[in-house]
Amino acid sequence: MTRPQILVVEDERIDAENIQNMLNNLGYGVSGLVSSGKSAIKKAEETHPDLILMDIKLKGEMDGVEAAEKIRERFDIPVVYLTAYADDKTLQRAKITEPFGYILKPFEEKELHSTIEMALYKNKMERELKEREHWVSTVLKSIGDAVIATDKDGLVTFMNSSAEALTGWKHEEALGKDLGEKLNIVIEEEACPPSKSPKKKKGRKEVIRLSNQALLIKKEGIEIPVDYSHSALTDGKEDILGSVLVFRDITERKRAEEELQRSFKKVKKILEEIIHAISLVVEMRDPYTAGHQRRVANFSCAIAKELGLPKEQIDGIHMAGIIHDIGKIYVPGEILSKPARLNEAELSLVKNHPRVGYDILKKIEFPWPIAEIVLQHHERIDGSGYPQGLSGEEILLEARILGVADVIEAMSSHRPYRPSLGLDWAFQEISENRGVLYDPEVVDTCLRLFREKRFKFE
User: Fold this and answer.
1) Nearest C-alpha neighbor of 323 from the set 369, 364, 361, 362
2) Measured distance CA(214)–CA(246) in Å, rounded
């Protein structure tokens, strides 16, 4: 292992030689003995020692403090001061040069050894820390996301080039300034739609929180939608040392999302028009049940809203309700309009309409499970329904809602083979079979809509 090399700057020849002997005894190498500040700088440049032992009081134009300051600036070599005495002004100057230790003359070999070892260790740790800081800084500067770091008081300590480009502020302008007051980057709890301008507080431009998105107001006043994250820097315990704000420009993404949303609405509208057209075809073949599908769809949506289902799911229920009897297109018209009870064979044909409806719809890529809802709308909780004999939770909630709405509308409407039975009969049917044939929560909601909310079929 290479011995640490130490430069001795001492204008008393005897003291310099004594120090050299001590260093040799301790196993250190001596890169030189010099007696002035200028010669110390020259020798440091030539030999670049690991440490300099510098006498504060040196003869000549340059004392030890001034020499140490120049050496630290030019070569970044650690300095330990040697002094027998010094006035307060000189000591204050010495402190500014950030020495790695002081040794008061006269000193023992043991004291010299401990001071040198501490100085060398401290210098090693500082170098490693600087290297680590440089590495982290290089990484942060090279990443594409904008990064701003602050201290515990919210003053900017770092800003990478991406943050400069996005905010319009240069690192030099932002350094040491308050993140909110000076850079106009403020995260608010209050949400604000992207189309609206952020609120102003005491003349500040602000960033308004939009879930994990925000509007960033650049230095020039331009609004930019961004994704952001805000994390605290801690000391591993509970003390906060600062924070890091990471954000990225999502202008193009927002534009693409808006375009996708417009396309989705357009496709959805086309689907709705197709479904309504199909519904009209069914009703034209079965004039006695004209309007049945529409009324079932509307009532099913009312039940779904009362249950608190999300709008997207309600839209699916409406679409399924509009064409839930599409399979009847397979049933001969004379059976659909027969003014008498159906025989077993005819009833079998009619009961097959959910399966036929499913087969017609299954290859259409709806954003909802339309084909499955149509297939299951005659299934019953106890497994006695058709065509699959599903029970309980095996039946989609949408189909359970549609099943109850279908029964209520059918019983309260006229049919070719019978007059309307009325709502009271329909209510009795679902009440007596609550939890047996029909979902109990759906039944309760249905009755509440009629009795408390005054729902009426159009």
Assistant:
1) 361
2) 12
Q: Give the pair of three-digit tokens for residue 154.
A: 């919210």
Q: Tell me which DSSP letter residue 244 carries.
A: E
Range from 71-75, 271-275, 321-325, 374-378 carrying the lowest mean pLDDT? 271-275
CATH code of 5-139, in short, is 3.40.50.2300
CA angle 416, 417, 421 (to 5 degrees): 95
The predicted model gives 327-354 an average pLDDT of 84
Cα–Cα dist 252/362, whole Å? 36
Question: 179 versus 187: which is more confidently predicted?
Answer: 179
Q: What is the DSSP string of 194-224?
A: TTSPPP-BTTB--EEEETTEEEEE-TTS-EE
DSSP label of 246: E
Q: What CATH code is assigned to 145-249?
A: 3.30.450.20
Give me the numbers of helices (H) and strands (E) for the chain, helices first please.
17, 12
Whether pLDDT at 191 is above 50:
no
Can you give the C-alpha Rg of the chain in angstroms? Answer: 42
Whether pLDDT at 195 is above 50: no
Residue by residue, DSSP assigns 396-444 as: -HHHHHHHHHHHHHHHTS-BTTB----HHHHHHHHHHTBTTTB-HHHHH
- CATH of range 256-451; options 3.90.190.20, 3.30.310.50, 3.40.50.720, 1.10.3210.10: 1.10.3210.10
Domain with CATH 1.10.3210.10 in the chain: 256-451
Contact at 8 Å (CB) between 41 and 28?
no
